[in-house]
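PROTEIN ENTRY
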Amino acid sequence: MPNIADSINKIRFLDELAEKRTWIHDIHPVCKLFVTIAYLFVVVSFGKYDTGRLLPFVFYPVVVFTIGELPVLPILKMMLVAAPFVLGIGIFNPLLDKSVVAVFFGVPISGGWISFFSLMLKCGLTVVAALLLLATTGMERIALALRMIRVPKIFVLQLLLTYRYITVLIEEANRIWNAYMLRAPGQKGVSFKAWGSLAGQMLMRSFDRAQRVYQAMGLRGFNGEYNPGCIKKPAVKDFIYFTCWVVFFAVSRYYNLPGLIGTVVTGVMK
């Protein structure tokens, strides 16, 4: 099943990107985590008609893509996974909000369309920021950062194990799918009558695989405690990275930078 294999490859692709050795990959994970959290909070704090004020926040992913030497298209394709959910939420905005709030080259634009584009832009920015954190830090170091800021270890452990073994679950689903298609050649999709038995098979195989994974972890000394390993303290460059981005986010949130730039440009042209 191409989609299942593609999902496995995407997860492994992010892990491979996190193993790169660039300047931004060496930034302390706690600083990158706080920068990402600040970015998410500031982006979602704008009103539904503030589409233009969100434009300066495109600068953050552009810088991370460039410094981290990350491929743009594969990560943008991953971002599209969340697009249908947001599209389903905002698609009715143009129908419900028809009040004209702007005129662009003589064309009236309703508040519903502006709020719709604002919602889609927020979705794109926040999902890309989360993917960039994963691609430049890796789940292991994100878990380390969460423990350093005193997030309960049970939550960190659940997050880490879910991410690490989600590929195991996907591989089991792939095996069941291949076995079904070999027994039903030429059939498009899974028959409705087989859904129950396949779900039961999936559940039983998952329990069995989880038991073997736990036994393997126990043989390696796992006792329920999360061991974060060696903890490196943040350096000066980490604080500079954090401070620069937080100041930029605060300035972009407080001032209307696109409006100020537009005023300056039109003033110069006059």
Observations:
- The longest strand covers residues 100-104.
- The radius of gyration is 23 Å.
